[in-house]
Amino acid sequence: xxxxxxxxxxxxxxxxxxxxxxxxxxxxxxxxxxxxxxxxxxxxxxxxxxxxxxxxxxxxxxxxxxxxxxxxxxxxxxxxxxxxxxxxxxxxxxxxxxxxxxxxxxxxxxxxxxxxxxxxxxxxxxxxxxxxxxxxxxxxxxxxxxxxxxxxxxxxxxxxxxxxxxxxxxxxxxxxxxxxxxxxxxxxxxxxxxxxxxxxxxxxxxxxxxxxxxxxx
Length: 217
Ligand code: DC
Prior knowledge:
By secondary structure, the chain is α/β, with parallel strands linked by helices. The chain has a single domain (2-197), classed as P-loop containing nucleotide triphosphate hydrolases (Rossmann fold, 3-Layer(aba) Sandwich). The chain contains 9 helices and 8 strands.
């Protein structure tokens, strides 16, 4: 069974998806981590961000291995390194690159082939797994999403202002929605869950109920 969880940044997708996968005994696939790893490789190799073919070549040369909670790039554990603000700021180059997307989408399909999986991303229900048995669209209000991101960054000791986080988020939302390939859209057969005011555990409870209902037929 494939469960897709799409939605904007800050809706709580990654922690909810991870928790849901654990409860169900499914494989967890964080597709955003793949775009982040490509971006990290681009930064390290000082790629010219305007050169789309160069980033595509870098992607082709990467071995990305995602375990339940760790991300390995050519054997190196980059789980922490892909979460910096610098990487977040450059990810749109990887996400907007058609060849990079095609490569990562193929990788995602290969990983999910023949197993039970919960995937987390933007294009999972629309492009990657349009035949998925259960599609969820996770949202939250702009203010709540920005507040979560702000607290996460402050918790890591990063000096940021709330207004700056909110402005960047609005910019990222626009980029995610306007992306020519793999843009963020809610499909007709997806179930929308708004996470405003809910704890991660409460979100996971709701998602688990939705999936089990589908699963039991
Ligand atoms: O979910 P995230 O913040 O880790 O995603 C990182 C970036 O990758 C973000 O700019 C959106 C993009 N992305 C994408 O285009 N398609 C996906 N399936 C997942 C993430």
